[in-house]
Write a sequence for this structure.
């Protein structure tokens, strides 16, 4: 028979085990909550200071390739602008992009990635622009070939962003320029693969079709090419899951553009009103 | 003095684990953790409660300073600390507690030691991989990740356990 002191010891051990596990579990469960962002910000700022130099070294050794990509992109964009102006019969004076990177309803801020996780289920990235540069939470991160993430928390000079390679992230996307719309999310394994969900069975599409952002969100502008269709499967007999190879390899990025919808402050209250109506 | 030397090595291995978490992301299928081996190698005279508190603190530090979901390492390593004395008893017998001595590969043999490390690694990896995937990854992916991580973890852990054992033998 167990001695009284042994029983007390077992109970105490079990109690401490449960307490520690509950603490750990609550930390894991509340991974996306404000407390976690606060702690993450702290840990990431420590990490930025301590480990950020490794990203600088990586940046340095990939500068040549990045410059070539940027030069090509610049050339292509200039060519597009020139052709559009010629088609409209206008001379180029740079007035289509006004002041500090404004274009229509969106404001664009170029940024560099200073830290990025790649091999996790919930990946994140930190960019070198913060509220002092005009970045606001819930802004999008894009390149000319993809949607990269969403700004989650903003510090003075840095912003913490949820990556596309995160199981909680999806982008409203459209097949072609007129096709069906559904949420596009990371496949959880490769840095350049994604799945377009909830596409009705009557939708006509074929391999090689391009998937674009739909514009049905207050975060990403419409018509950004995201990827090409490589296959499909029927989900629960009611919808297609369409497999997409992304144009942008999310793990190899160095530079992004932060995009801020200037009308979002008006759109969000309207969305909230709609949600409240639905609840009633 | 003996404990001081052990915990100095312990802290070095925790620091190494932080570096691994930040820099050694070799593959989606490989989770290399040194925490299980250093937790089960905590000297026998330390109680389960002490081992759990040390393990929780180590896991928390790795979570805070390493990449990944906060609390994940802490969640997975505490059960290893809880199971530590039971594992010692099952694999090496009651004599470990009777003599109050630390376990070494030289004294108990490689097979027993591999079993000891494998069970601890497996316990850690099952919890870690399931919590990390959060039900979003297919079974085959988790199984493959578990298998690769277990084999790699055992090999690296044996090296660390041998280093710690050398420390005991030298005294």
């Amino acid at each position: 028979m167990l001695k009284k002191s042994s029983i007390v010891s077992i109970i105490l051990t079990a109690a401490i085990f449960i307490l520690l596990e509950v603490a750990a579990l609550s930390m894991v469960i509340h991974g996306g909550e404000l407390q976690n962002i606060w702690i993450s910000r702290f840990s990431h700022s420590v990490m930025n200071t301590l480990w950020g130099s490794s990203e600088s070294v990586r940046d340095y050794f990939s500068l040549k390739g990045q410059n070539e990509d940027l030069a090509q992109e610049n050339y292509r964009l200039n060519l597009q602008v020139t052709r559009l102006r010629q088609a409209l019969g206008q001379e180029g004076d740079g007035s289509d992009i006004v002041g500090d990177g404004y274009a229509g309803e969106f404001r664009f801020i170029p940024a560099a990635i200073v830290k990025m996780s790649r091999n996790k289920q919930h990946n994140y990235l930190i960019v070198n622009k913060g509220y002092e540069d005009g970045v606001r939470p819930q802004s999008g991160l894009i390149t000319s070939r993809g949607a990269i993430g969403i700004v989650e928390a903003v510090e003075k000079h840095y912003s913490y962003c949820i990556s596309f390679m995160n199981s909680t992230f999806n982008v409203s996307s459209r097949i072609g320029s007129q096709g069906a719309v559904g949420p596009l999310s990371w496949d959880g394994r490769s840095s350049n693969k994604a799945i377009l969900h909830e596409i009705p069975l009557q939708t006509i599409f074929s391999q090689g079709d391009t998937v674009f952002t739909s514009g049905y969100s207050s975060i990403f502008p419409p018509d950004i090419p995201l990827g090409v269709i490589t296959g499909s499967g029927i989900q629960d007999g009611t919808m297609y899951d369409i497999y997409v190879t992304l144009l942008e390899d999310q793990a190899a990025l160095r530079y992004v553009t932060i995009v801020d919808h200037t009308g979002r402050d008006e759109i969000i209250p309207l969305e909230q009103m709609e949600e409240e109506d639905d609840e009633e | 003095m003996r404990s001081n030397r052990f915990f100095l090595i312990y802290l070095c291995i925790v620091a190494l684990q932080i570096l691994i978490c930040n820099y050694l992301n070799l593959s989606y299928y490989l989770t290399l953790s040194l925490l299980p081996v250093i937790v089960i190698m905590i000297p026998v005279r330390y109680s389960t409660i002490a081992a759990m508190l040390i393990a929780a603190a180590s896991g928390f530090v790795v979570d805070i300073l390493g990449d990944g979901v906060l609390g994940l390492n802490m969640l997975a390593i505490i059960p290893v600390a809880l199971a530590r004395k039971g594992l010692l008893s099952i694999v090496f017998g009651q004599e470990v507690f009777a003599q109050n001595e630390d376990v070494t590969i030289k004294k108990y043999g490689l097979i027993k030691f591999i079993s000891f490390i494998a069970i601890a690694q497996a316990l850690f990896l099952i919890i870690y991989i399931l919590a990390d995937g959060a039900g979003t990854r297919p079974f085959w992916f988790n199984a493959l990740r578990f298998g690769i991580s277990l084999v790699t973890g055992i090999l690296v852990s044996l090296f660390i356990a041998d280093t710690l054992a050398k420390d005991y033998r030298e005294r």
